[in-house]
Amino acid sequence: MRALTVQPLAPGTARIDDLPAPDPGDSLLLVDGIALGICGTDREIVAGAYGWAPPGRDRLVLGHESLGRVRQAPADSDFTAGDLVVGVVRRPDPQPCGACARGEFDMCRNGGYTERGIKQIDGYAAEQWTVEPGYAVRLDPALADVGVLMEPTTVVAKAWEQIDLIGARSWFAPRTALVTGAGPIGLLAALLGVQRGLDVHVLDRVTDGPKPDVVTALGATYHHDPVAEVAGKLQPDVVVEATGAGPVVFGVIGNTAPYGITCLTGVSAPGRKLSVDVGADNREIVLENDVVVGSVNANLRHYRAAADALTKADLRWLRSLITRRVPLDDFADALTAHDDDIKVVLDLSAGGR
Q: E strands of 166-254, at which residues?
């Protein structure tokens, strides 16, 4: 069985290895890998920025944005051969904190969690993989060629859940949403905003390529003007920030409607300095009851919400997000960002050789 592996913290060590076929035993699902979504996290791990191999090993099977088809399932599970599934990324810490013990492992308090393809557990970049039935989620068969979008959709499903929970502290009837960044996370956040009936606007710096047309096809409005100008005119009730760029983050925080909620999903690079008027931002946040909240990862509830959102979405639109499909043998190309990329997918099937 072939798998894409890397030695964490060692740049340039990604390679395809021949590994023993996984043994599901009596308790695990055996899954044939179909596809793997590539994201910035994978590229950072391959670049040596972070990552943790399983205990006692120096190499990690990469990949957390999974899609596969069940080959074999335990008799007492809810799965059968042929089911289209994704595997959950995060697992609770072995000595669970209060959040992990209650199934909210995306909100782990002590950092003892593990993550497939990232932290101490092999990922899904393999021709076959196993997963516990309790950490697998079934997808509608119609999503066979786009189900790899599931994991990034879970991230924004959680973000919107957080927005709803915060808004519910008082009367909350948002009308306008601004999404900053037209990558996969931003576009899927826009999808969920449109599905909620909001007037959705998406801001990105590019002026050509596929992104403006993808936003328009969704029924949202695309912008590429300076963030303070766009947000200042819109005064959005909700912002989903998906760039992690400091100027964009502070550009939206200071330009929401009263009782505005800004949800940060983009991870900023450390070491960059930015001059901001903290006093003015603090004054506006306090006097307008605004909220800024960070959100990352997802639990099983968010996976199910994401599966529902993808099932309701236009398949043609979802297909338009996948701008490159790359055979496993050409993994280096998949890990290299191209200017017109939205979502790059690695083909794990034998036919993709």
A: 176-180, 199-203, 221-223, 238-241
List, for residues 108-147, the tens digit of each pLDDT value: 999 999 999 999 999 999 999 999 999 999 999 999 999 9
Amino acid making up residue 122: D
Q: What's the half-sphere exposure (Cβ side, CA atoms, 13 Å) at 235?
A: 6
| Alpha-carbon span 3 to 9, nearest angstrom | 19
Crossing angle between the packed helical segments 300-312 and 184-195, to the nearest 10 degrees: 70
pLDDT tens digits, one per residue of 69-117: 999 999 999 999 999 999 999 999 999 999 999 999 999 999 999 999 9
Domain spans in the chain, listed from the N-terminal domain onward: 2-138+314-352, 154-294
Q: What are phi and psi of 164, to 5 degrees?
A: -60, -45
Distance, in Å, from the CA atom of 140 to the CA atom of 308, rounded to the nearest integer, reads 9
**What is the C-alpha to C-alpha distance for residues 262 and 264, in angstroms, rounded to an integer?**
6
Helix (H) or strand (E) holding 37: strand 29-38
| Nearest Cα residue to 138 out of 278, 6, 307 | 307
d(CA 183, CA 262): 18
Structure confidence at residue 73 (pLDDT): 98
**Looking at the domain that runs over 154-294, which CATH code has it been given?**
3.40.50.720
Count helices and strands in the chain by DSSP H and E runs: 11, 19
Q: Which CATH number is correct for 2-138+314-352, 3.90.180.10, 3.30.70.60, 1.10.760.10, 3.40.50.300?
A: 3.90.180.10
pTM of structure: 0.95
Distance separating alpha carbons of residues 10 and 240, to the nearest angstrom: 33
- The encoded tokens of residue 322 equal 């996948």
Q: What tokens appear for 3 in the block?
A: 């798998």
Pairing of the two strands 120-121 and 176-180: unpaired
